[in-house]
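Researcher: Please predict.
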Amino acid sequence: MGKGLFADELAASAYDIPYERLYEEGFRGIIYDIDNTLVLPDAPADDRAYGLVEKLKKIGFSIITVSNNKGPRVSSFAEAVRVPYVPKAAKPSRRGYLKAMEIMGTTPAATLVIGDQIYTDIWGGNRAGAYTILTSPFTDKEEIQIILKRIIEKPVLWLYRMTHHEN
């Protein structure tokens, strides 16, 4: 039985992850969700996102964005921070994640998936065999379908915290 809906780690934000430790542990590729993971929903790339990507490239990571959004949203962000991208990924399907790993030249065992949604980012990353990190969303001002997903995510987060004895 796989990890299912449970992330390997929780993080307050994509900006608070110990990337140096993860690189030392052998991870070489990072697949990011964009909205509510790196920036506010529909926001353009900002200095913080650009700085993080540059820092990670210097460490030695390959980086890509994988999103269920359409091409223009994903391409404008990814091109601004100078990383490849996979739009319309149909997360939690494995397809977009496997395509991203192929582009980066990484294996599932050497790839991190970082995102803010359990039923797309984490479940999809787990299905693809990657190491998953769930971040807290930046805002709760989201489209109704995301708000509904957040409601059904609450029991999963509670169970995760109970079984992983988080402080």
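Model: The first strand starts at residue 9 and ends at 11.
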